[in-house]
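Single-chain item
Fold in token form
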Amino acid sequence: MKTLSKTSAVAALIGIAAIGLCIAASAETTLERVQRTGQIRIGYANEAPFAYTLPDGKVTGESPEIAKVVFNQIGVKKIDAVLTEWGGLIPGLMAGRFDVIAAGMYVTPERLQQVLFTDPHYQIGDTLLVAKGNPLNLHSYADIVKNPKVKLAVMSGTAEYTYARKAGISDSQIMQVPNTTAELQAVRTRRAHAAVGTQLTMKDLAVKGGKSVEAITTFEDDPAHIGYGALAFRKDDKDLRDAVNVALKAWVGSEEHLKTVAPFGFDSSNLTTKTVEELAQP
């Protein structure tokens, strides 16, 4: 009886292991799932013109509109957008709240440790949002360093926070805020003397802010701070990233692409030939 029990137990274990292997072998990848269901979830943060919600609830912006086109090309017709704060985008992706970040996220060495990026679909520099007339004559991070009384509003989790700290701006001078609306409000109410972000975002905030603020036209910055925006995926989803990358390469730079992104202030000057592999180099 003991011999029979042991044999049965071994057989049972082998059976369980075989079932586990079958399940693992048949598990869908994210690419297979989204192609089967025809839908995908994108994560975004409210930052015009990259990705934002219109008053009617529609999600638009440079990145979501690009996502709609390239996912359609790989057989995914329906996109569900999930709003989160900027600092929650990568954690939300890793937790499975959505399948891709379509928010104009810069490719940075730190983020490359956490996620997979496509090749960038735009390049852009930064600038400052200041009070009308730029009363403190701020034109660089160095100008802020020179005046320890200056407060700089920065959206949490952005590359600009890292740039500001590396430039020598102390944490006591930096006001971290959750979104661009908070950046605008900080400058309008004079709780901050300036806010930093991409040229297009700061120009958009200047329009929304009316006569009380402006985006400066001359911002002296390290050329290495040129931002390269791309779609981001979980590291397990390389096949999905690769499929999207193929579609992007075939479409970005075309007449249709430039027409799609023009309403958001992008043009041929924002095109780049940089690859994610190049941006990964130290």
Notes: The longest strand covers residues 39-44.
